[in-house]
Amino acid sequence: MIVTGAQAPDFTLRDTEKNKVTLGEQKGKNVVLLFFPLAFTSTCTKELCMTRDNIAIYNGLDATVYGISVDSLFALGKFKEEQQLNFSLLSDFNKVASTAYDTIYDHWYNDMDGVSKRSAFVIDKEGIVRYAEVLENASDIPDFDAIQLCLKEINK
Fold first, then answer.
1. Which residues pair with 103 in a beta bridge?
2. Which residues have CB under 8 Å from 90's CB, separation 6+?
3. Bridge-partner residues for 123, per DSSP?
4. How confident is the model at residue 108 (pLDDT cuts 50, 70, 90)?
5. What are the phi and psi torsion angles at 42 (to 5°)?
6. Coil, helix or strand at residue 134
7. Where are the alpha helices (DSSP H) in the chain?
8. pTM recorded for the entire structure
9. pLDDT at residue 137 above 80?
10. For 18-132, where are the alpha helices, taking DSSP H only?
11. All domains of the chain, ordered by start, with CATH?
């Protein structure tokens, strides 16, 4: 389990443009990681569209947002295009990051085991976890007010 104050586990994943994104190379930036179960599902679409609609808030708080799921980068690319998402989606197809952040469902809906739990993490400019929220119920949405408050606090 990831706890606040701990060093964020590093990972390298591909975005929808097939570029490698390594968390450790994001030092000097605040990062918001939003793990979600599956593209094209109702709650995931709602969550990521809320983020899209509020991206100016995250930009104003000097934060880079990444959505992460176990979907292929191709499925995520289509999802990003259809929803006009204005932040990067990362494919954790091999479940490297989801495992490192302990956000994997052992058993999930319709026998789709091994998808990411809906989770949110704020990583500060030094690579330290400042906020961690792992939701067991996939229909719940992260506490975006708490995430934004955390970002405000670390920017003081």
1. none
2. 13, 14, 15, 21, 66, 67, 68, 76, 97
3. 31, 129
4. low
5. -60, -50
6. strand
7. 42-53, 55-60, 73-83, 96-100, 144-154
8. 0.94
9. yes
10. 42-53, 55-60, 73-83, 96-100
11. 12-154 (3.40.30.10)
Strands 30-35 and 63-69 come out as: parallel
Indicate which residues carry an active-site annotation.
44
The DSSP code for 25 is G
* pLDDT beyond 90 at 124: yes
Percent of the chain with pLDDT over 70: 95
Q: Name the β-bridge partners of 106.
A: none
Confidence class for position 109, pLDDT limits 50, 70, 90 = low
Q: What is the pLDDT of residue 127?
A: 96
Structure tokens at 108: 């999930």
Q: Looking at the DSSP assignment, which residues form a beta bridge with residue 15?
A: 90
Q: In the β-sheet with 119-123, what is the strand arrangement from edge to edge?
A: 20-22, 12-15, 88-91, 63-69, 30-35, 119-123, 129-134
SS3 content of the chain, % helix, strand, coil (to 5): 35, 25, 40
> Which pair of tokens denotes residue 96?
């490297």
